[in-house]
Structures
1.
Amino acid sequence: MQVTTIGIDLAKNIFQVHGITESDEVAFNRPLRRAQVLPLLAA
């Protein structure tokens, strides 16, 4: 499953990260702490 679009709702401590595939299926939708965002995007 290849994620093609990532949306990020920025907040002070918790970010909501949402990824969708080429066929418009939700790959993930989860809250992340500030320190967890960069490792997720790097992967």
Note: The chain has one domain: 3-42.
2.
Amino acid sequence: MTRAVALEGAPHGVTCVSVSPGWVETDMLRESAAILASKSGRSQAEEIAIMGSSNPQNRLIQPSEISALVAFCCSDAAAGLTMEDIQVTAGALW
């Protein structure tokens, strides 16, 4: 979809970039960790730590990192950036 929109929009000055984050520290992540904790016998905090440790940077992505990237992509400074999927994964390959 990103490629199609980028190609069709290019003659009209429309760009299209997708952002694919890994584990982002949000309420939804905390809810998922609580569900996992209820099944695993570990605490919610332990489940969250496991998620963070699955990344080479050993941390969760922060919502502010995603919002800063999206704000940049929407700015004139990113006019040449199109037809890309930007993966924000703290180094994870999955």
Note: DSSP finds four helices and two strands in the chain.
